[in-house]
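for the record, two folds in this file. i put them one after another cuz i was lazy. first one right below, seq on top, structure tokens after. the second one comes after a little note so u can tell where it starts
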Amino acid sequence: MQFRTSISIPKSNYPIDYNSKVMSLGSCFAVNIGSKFDYYKFQNTTNPFGIIFNPVSLEKIIQRGIQKDYFTEKDIFFHNDLWHCFEVHSELSNPNKEHFLQRLNQLVDATQQHICTATHCIITYGTSWVYRNIESNTIVANCHKVPQKQFTKELLSVETLEKSIQNTIALIQKVNPKAHFIFTVSPVRHIKDGFVENQISKAHLITAIHSIDKAQLLTPNYFPSYEIMMDELRDYRFYAEDMLHPNSTAIAYIWQRFKETTINETAIATMDKVDSIQKSLAHKPFNPHSDSHQKFEANRSKKIADLISEYPFMRF
């Protein structure tokens, strides 16, 4: 007797291994997946410009990176003692205007480099709801706590989303035609939009992704993180205290499903070695000066050296 449904996920034809260069972009769930890649020491870059929830804003920042369209003073503004940019996350905001612009343009260069060399682009969309700045008539990635009266709120249509996703694919393929794409919809619930409105938003995203012409993609691949959360993990014990975000147990489970279907089996042994080292680095010795602990550290140092000799990009 089975007490829950299990989603059937086909294995990727182009799985990720330690030779892959992964770029994870999009919502906060992209950060969850990206942190797993970082933990296991894959070659991974996550959201250079911070968390971006909607496809239009993500397309815009990708276009800026690929075309090396550098930020200028007209792209930033001062509010609540900080310089901000409507195109990027508030974690990048800075009290110094020159430092802020310099940092943004360094990220433009880095983004262009990462996109051109990525073997896999993992794109996680969070919402179809967007805020449009009234003065500029442009969709923003982040409102930066600017008064709401300066924005209008709208739900992007499936057609608009589909066009934006197609534009994103075309932009990346123009400079990196061999890049493989993995799309997913964030399982985070945007209840501030409303319960029904959140479902409509997710439905628009899912429909748009599945409406993309598969001939446009080298590897049409959809990973059902949202569906796993809604169907396999349909219980509040898998949510964080805010009852909106997946908790660590849910993230670990979704990562396990991702690992089973998208990570090359040849990489698993190395992942186990990295995991062993990471756990040993987190170990707090009772007596750090004892002979046994010195042997423990020597053994760990050898394991790290052996891995780095095989994968020079790894850093512990």
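(here's the note) second protein begins now
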Amino acid sequence: MKKLSVLFTLIILTVSGLFAAPSKIIMLRDNGPLRKANDSNGVEWSETVRAGTELELASSQTVIKDLVTSSKTYTDVEFYEVKYNKNTYYVQLTDAEPADGASVIQEDAVLFTRPTLKAFRNAMLETGTFVVAGDTTKEMNITYRKIIFYDTNEGVKRTRYVNSENISSSDKDVKAVILLETARATQNEELQKELLNNAKSIKTSILIEGYITREINKILNISTFSDDTIEQYEAYAVIYDPDGSKINVRSMPGTAGEVVGQIESADTPAIYVSLRTESTETINKFTDHWYYITEPETGLEGWVFGGFIGFQ
């Protein structure tokens, strides 16, 4: 009987280990606040960390405390107790999610409320957004992945589904994007260049590598197209976007170019095209050249991605 009891205990411990709660928590909110306890039952702001940062989860149980801000005290707010750099902090439930690791959107991802095409929402998460990824579900040859992310518009965590191909759970991809975002936020030019070089040196997936390169070019205002790859190209065309959005006109070819103006795609007059890049670029799954255009009525000149141009 004693042997059976020991065996039963070992089985219980093994099964419990398979379903053990995560020991980490992922910050989903950019510049997510870490708060320290005060002398009463409250917590106050201490410092911030970037989205994607892994924190040590001190307990799987949440705690109720008062949130003290400069303008108001909110009572009975639920927090996770965490450890970061050997200090104890409190993180609000809306800002972070327990998980074994962070994931990152590696290509703009359409959101679904359920794992089916019928649950499509007119919203998406941009490349570089940090999420916590969950289970996958396959329907009609599409594998959906459950995700939890921070909704910056509403200031809450949301649960949605995306095409699993749009997500990377690679530690290297996550690290590279964190370095990129840290560099974007710093005002120190030398430190910024060092962080960008570190981000670029990491061997990431192809999609994240392309994203890192594009974003570095934007930060440093570098065009991916050199002068000797630009050719003459004379034509008349119209600007068009299926969504009816305004189209950016840039100072140089590529998304690193500064936006010098915008053109309404709905009522655009004919534009004159005088230059084109020899090579192409892929943006939101559309591959095309960049064209130098002149808008005759306003005199606006600059570069427009070919995916928004219809030639006459």
